[in-house]
Design goal:
With 64 residues, the protein is of the alpha+beta class. It has two helices and two strands; from the N terminus they run αββα. The chain has a two-stranded antiparallel ribbon. It starts with a helix and ends with a helix.
């Protein structure tokens, strides 16, 4: 259980660090990505970007 928690935390840290770099390639601005303001803060739900990155990761893992 602790291993999965560590993997999730590392993935979140990695994705938050790469967000600015991924936005240059259009991730986070795809048609299924939602941005809204609530409680005085900007919130992002990158649903389609997550799906695209997941498919890319699955393809890379399949060929390695």
């Amino acid at each position: 259980m602790i291993r999965w928690l560590i993997v999730v935390v590392l993935a979140l840290v990695l994705m938050s660090g790469l967000t600015a770099w991924l936005r240059r390639f259009g991730f986070g601005r795809l048609p299924g990505d939602f941005e809204f303001r609530a409680f005085g803060r900007d919130w992002q739900l990158p649903i389609s970007s997550t799906l695209v990155l997941s498919m890319i990761a699955a393809l890379v893992a399949r060929f390695i």
